[in-house]
């Protein structure tokens, strides 16, 4: 209880909350860059349409190292807030007695999952800032190949695939049901609601496709298929009406990026 009380006092700080909010525009920027990369792929240009591809774009710009350190800072700040939600439940900043609430376990798991994702992206941003970043598809393929060497490793890969599909399915549900509106401090409004629906559903569909690619890779013993988001994007491009589907995915990621930027001000904390 003493530990929870300490975490609760930290989340009561408006300064800490403001720092944590810095992660939202960073997330928005990465989604907008992924949308840009998807558009490039739709028109036949090379690129890797995932978070590391977005980080590589930043790294290639003038002053890219500074931008990447800022990205890492924002993501770490937001991940620490998510870890506070693991301890206290969602939106601890809204209640001075958050440490005494009974928070559903599922909410704690969601917060933990997001914290892990943000920390992994922050680590990747630091690697690119230091000049040792590696494309996500190469890293995923290498890790998948190592996991496929043993039965337990294959089981882990299958579990990861199902987890990504489940996460994508939740995004689709959250967007289609407009459940994301409960995360806002204001009524959604037409623009915010549209961005939230399109963004959540599009990202959920691509995440589901990414999870399926991991599952197919594990069942077919082909680590080259387990390249996550980038593999899902390229699979869309190879389907019938692939260019149209890629442009639709790009619009969805851009919508989620703009929605994330708006969360900087309007997210419940």
UniProtKB/TrEMBL annotation:
Protein's UniProt name: DUF1206 domain-containing protein
Keyword list, A-Z: Membrane, Transmembrane, Transmembrane helix
Secretion signal, residue range per the UniProt entry: none
Source organism of this protein record: Mycobacterium adipatum
Pfam family, one: DUF1206
Domain of life: Bacteria
Domain DUF1206: 22-87, 111-177, 198-263
Transmembrane recorded as keyword: yes
InterPro entries: DUF1206 (IPR009597)
Keyword match DNA-binding: no
Transmembrane annotation, as ranges: 22-46, 66-90, 111-132, 152-173, 194-220, 245-264
């Amino acid at each position: 209880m003493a530990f929870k009380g300490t975490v609760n006092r930290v989340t009561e700080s408006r300064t800490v909350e403001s720092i944590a909010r810095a992660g939202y525009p960073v997330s928005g920027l990465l989604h907008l860059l992924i949308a840009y990369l998807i558009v490039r792929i739709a028109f036949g240009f090379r690129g890797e349409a995932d978070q590391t591809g977005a980080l590589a774009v930043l790294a290639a710009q003038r002053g890219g190292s500074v931008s990447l350190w800022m990205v890492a800072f924002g993501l770490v700040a937001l991940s620490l807030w998510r870890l506070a939600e693991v301890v206290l439940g969602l939106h601890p900043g809204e209640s001075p007695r958050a440490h005494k609430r009974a928070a559903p376990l599922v909410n704690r798991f969601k917060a933990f999952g997001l914290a892990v994702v943000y920390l992994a992206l922050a680590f990747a941003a630091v690697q690119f800032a230091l000049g040792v970043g590696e494309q996500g598809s190469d890293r995923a393929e290498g890790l998948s190949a190592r996991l496929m060497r043993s039965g337990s490793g294959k089981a882990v890969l299958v579990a990861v695939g199902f987890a990504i599909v489940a996460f994508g399915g939740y995004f689709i549900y959250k967007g289609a049901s407009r459940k994301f509106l409960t995360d806002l401090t204001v009524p959604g409004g037409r623009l915010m609601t549209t961005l939230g629906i399109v963004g959540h559903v599009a990202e959920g569909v691509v995440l589901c496709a990414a999870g399926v690619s991991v599952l197919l890779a594990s069942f077919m013993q082909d680590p080259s298929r387990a390249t996550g988001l980038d593999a899902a994007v390229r699979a869309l491009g190879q389907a019938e009406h692939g260019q149209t589907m890629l442009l639709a995915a790009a619009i969805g990621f851009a919508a989620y990026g703009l929605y994330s930027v708006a969360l900087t001000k309007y997210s419940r904390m």
